[in-house]
Design goal:
Number of domains: 3
Strand content: 15-25%
Radius of gyration: 22 Å
Mean pLDDT: 94
Structural class: alpha/beta
Helix content: 40-55%
Number of strands: 11
Number of helices: 12
Distance between the termini: 45 Å
CATH class of the largest domain: Alpha Beta
Low-confidence stretches: none
CATH architecture of the largest domain: 3-Layer(aba) Sandwich
Length: 346
């Protein structure tokens, strides 16, 4: 096994100071990572004299630290992120649907994350209530102030950079609901799809919702389904990453169904581990192998106990598991498999 190359500043005097600081961080299990981060900061000072670069990296790091601090106490609670137009009127169907959806999903044990501004964001926080809401605002010269349901709340975070904000939308949530919106909403929609299609974020339901008489999502999906596969830009299975509904009850049902049996995912070396809310029978596991063997590089899907890396991190040790050698390429089919898995044992 190839050893990891040491990450150092190149100067012994600085490396010693960095190592001493890392040991004083009180993060005993992560001293190595603290040392690498400190080394990066020192290397920046040695290599880059551009103040603009340093200001950007400094602010980005500060935002990441603070947002992580806010979310840490709530990591064991499921959350839904809601996207949609900041310009939706309070008398619009979308606004009213968002309020009701948030009310319902909170009753099912989820918390709600929005962008913290007006329109659909305000509706999401209104329905969820201050206690069950997070808001991730963006500093803009117009249109984007904290809405009255999140202003002043300790779970409200203000970002300078969109890339940090979008990272936390997905990193801290388990499901995505998207109402109609403009460029920002579509950007959030397609970034979510891209990250899931490439395996850069954990599996989740992406629910596109609008009123029954609206053609907003249907026309977009028609374009995507017709033009992108025929040019070879996506595979037909990638369309499985999207779920379109036109009622809030359907949206809530889709989210709950996604986590009926599937709990969470962990990659351990070459293996993909699925943690489950309840065990599957041998017959059900055989069904998975028959339908989805094409996405395995080798072997088959098998039941397993927690792997050593999971035991070391004490991750959901009481949950049953499946382990497989997933090719980490066909994420559209992988999501189809998760949705099928959630129907088993019914």
């Amino acid at each position: 096994m190839k050893s990891k190359k040491e990450y150092k500043t190149g100067r012994e005097d600085l490396d010693k100071i960095v190592a001493d600081l890392a040991r004083l961080s009180l993060s005993a299990n992560n001293t190595d990572l603290i040392e690498e981060m400190l080394t990066t900061v020192v290397k920046l000072g040695l290599e880059n004299d551009e103040r603009g670069d340093l200001k950007l990296i400094n602010m980005a790091l500060k935002e990441l630290r603070y947002a992580s601090k806010i979310f840490i106490p709530y990591r064991d609670q499921r959350k839904v992120v809601i996207f949609g137009s900041a310009r939706s009127r309070k008398d619009s169907d979308e606004f009213k649907m968002t309020v009701k959806l948030s009310e319902l999903i909170v009753k099912k044990g989820f918390k709600v994350i929005t962008g913290g501004g007006p329109g659909i964001m305000e509706a999401g926080n209104k329905g969820a209530g201050r206690k069950e809401s997070f808001s991730l605002n963006i500093k803009l010269p117009f249109e984007q102030q904290f809405n009255p349901y999140t202003a002043g709340d300790e779970k409200s975070v203000s970002f300078k950079y969109f890339f940090n904000r979008k990272l936390f939308f997905l990193k801290e949530s388990d499901a995505t609901v998207i109402f109609p919106g403009g460029f920002g909403t579509l950007d959030e929609c397609f970034e979510s799809l891209t990250l899931i299609q490439t395996g850069k974020t954990k599996p989740r339901p992406i629910v596109l919702i609008d009123s029954p008489d609206s053609e907003y999502w249907s026309r977009l999906i028609d374009f995507v389904a017709e033009k992108l596969p025929e040019r070879g830009f996506i595979s037909n299975n990638d369309l499985s990453l999207l779920i379109r509904v036109n009622s809030i009850e359907q949206a809530v049902d889709e989210i709950l169904q996604f986590f009926r049996i599937y709990h969470s995912i962990r990659y351990v070396g070459d293996k993909t581990v699925l943690r489950l809310n309840k065990p599957l029978s041998s017959e059900d596991i055989n069904k998975l192998n028959m339908k989805y063997c094409s996405i395995l590089r080798s072997g088959k899907i098998e039941s397993t106990d927690s792997l050593p890396a999971e035991q070391e991190d004490e991750e959901f040790l009481d949950l049953p598991r499946l382990v497989m050698d997933f090719n980490r390429h066909d994420f559209g089919i992988f999501h189809e498999m998760l949705r099928f898995l959630n129907t088993l044992g019914e």
